[in-house]
């Protein structure tokens, strides 16, 4: 009576195909088998990228899944000049992380984990670090030659205010010593900071000092989370206490300097998406909503919501909303009232914005 309730001999359940176990496994490990390759030259295509990285992986001894090519798939975004390169195994993807900075068609490329990489899940699937036995010299690389942003001394810095610039963040981190590598993670569409970064110190002995001093510090409306990216936090040794005290004093000074002064202009982030801004009707609705909501805090003079370029290229300030009030009081009320509120499902971040930059049409600060 109910033939579709029972498996059929051809491996299907009713009219729906059953996914083979191998395909299910590949899907489950995909996030850990892909690497992000950025800074590709315009001449790059899927075939040249796949061939190059397969050859390089073989040259350094990074192939651990047997004979054949390490690369099984490549997706290229030519407009943004990056690719996702999918490896056969989790271990081979981890070995590929050692290729950061390698020269491809005359240009150094960045090799990173993709944004959907889940370290907790990946840890159960295979090695998360490159093998120590890779022959990087065979392809002209040395361990850490491109900034050394992989390894046990890599530091995760989270909870960064979105208005912090890269030089400001580096200055904060360099309170403890020079950096060997630094990477502020940005939104690939807007170029805006995503609020977290990674770094490695030249003198790895200060790593735990930096983590202990910076972790938990209030910066604007945020609280920093600073720890070793691949390990639990550890405490500085007694002989490092004087370094820690000096660095904490420097941080206290910088915290005061990094607080943006009150102005008549408020900048909102985490409010709108690029797709919403492309649609004319949605853009007008957002603009009207912003005018209505923002007028509750004081006399609103102007609202600016930068839009993407018609050709899809990046435009300064996309993803931000700028509110100009007649006086500082209105802006102060708006900042206090808007910060942390939900708008379109996002938690709004509101900060003061320099008036001179706003009047000059400079929205990338």
From TrEMBL:
UniProt feature coiled coil, ranges: none
UniProt subcellular location: Nucleus
GO cellular component: spliceosomal complex
GO molecular function: RNA binding
RRM domain location: 33-116, 153-231, 270-356
Keywords: mRNA processing, mRNA splicing, Nucleus, Repeat, RNA-binding, Spliceosome
Superkingdom of origin: Eukaryota
Chief place where the protein resides: nucleus
Record bears the keyword RNA-binding: yes
Xref: SUPFAM superfamilies: RNA-binding domain, RBD
Single GO BP term: RNA splicing
InterPro entries documented for this protein: Nucleotide-bd_a/b_plait_sf, RBD_domain_sf, RRM_dom, U2AF_lg
Family: Belongs to the splicing factor SR family.
Protein function: Necessary for the splicing of pre-mRNA.
Protein name: Splicing factor U2af large subunit
Organism: Linum tenue
């Amino acid at each position: 009576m109910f033939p579709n309730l029972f498996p059929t001999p051809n491996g299907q359940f009713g009219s729906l195909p059953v996914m083979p176990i191998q395909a299910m496994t590949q899907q489950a490990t995909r996030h850990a088998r892909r690497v992000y390759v950025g800074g590709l030259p315009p001449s790059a295509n899927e075939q040249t990228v796949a061939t190059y990285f397969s050859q390089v992986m073989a040259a350094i001894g990074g192939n651990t899944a047997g004979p054949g090519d390490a690369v099984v798939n490549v997706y290229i975004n030519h407009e943004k000049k990056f690719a996702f390169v999918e490896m056969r195994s989790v271990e081979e993807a981890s070995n590929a992380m050692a290729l950061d900075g390698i020269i491809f068609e005359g240009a150094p490329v960045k090799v990173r984990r993709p944004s959907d990489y889940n370290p907790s899940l990946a840890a159960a699937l295979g090695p998360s670090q490159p093998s120590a036995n890779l022959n990087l010299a065979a392809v002209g690389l040395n361990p850490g030659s491109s900034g050394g942003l992989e390894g046990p001394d890599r530091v995760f810095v989270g909870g960064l205010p979105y208005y912090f610039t890269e030089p400001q963040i580096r200055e904060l981190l360099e309170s403890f010593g020079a950096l060997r590598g630094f990477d502020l993670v940005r939104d690939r569409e807007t170029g805006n900071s995503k609020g977290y970064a990674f770094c490695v110190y030249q003198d790895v002995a200060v790593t735990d000092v930096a983590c202990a001093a910076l972790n938990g510090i209030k910066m604007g409306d945020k609280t920093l989370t600073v720890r070793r990216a691949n390990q639990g936090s550890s405490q500085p040794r007694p002989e490092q206490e004087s370094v820690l005290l000096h660095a904490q004093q420097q941080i206290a000074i910088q915290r005061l300097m990094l607080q943006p002064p009150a102005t008549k202009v408020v900048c909102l982030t985490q409010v709108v998406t690029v797709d919403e801004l492309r649609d004319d009707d949605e853009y007008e609705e957002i603009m009207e909503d912003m005018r209505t909501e923002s007028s509750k805090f004081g006399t609103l003079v102007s609202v600016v919501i930068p839009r993407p370029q018609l050709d899809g290229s990046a435009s300064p300030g996309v993803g931000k909303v700028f509110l100009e009030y007649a006086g500082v009081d209105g802006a102060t009320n708006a900042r206090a009232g808007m910060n942390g509120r939900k708008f379109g499902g996002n938690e709004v971040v509101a900060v003061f914005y320099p008036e001179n930059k706003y009047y000059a049409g400079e929205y990338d600060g």
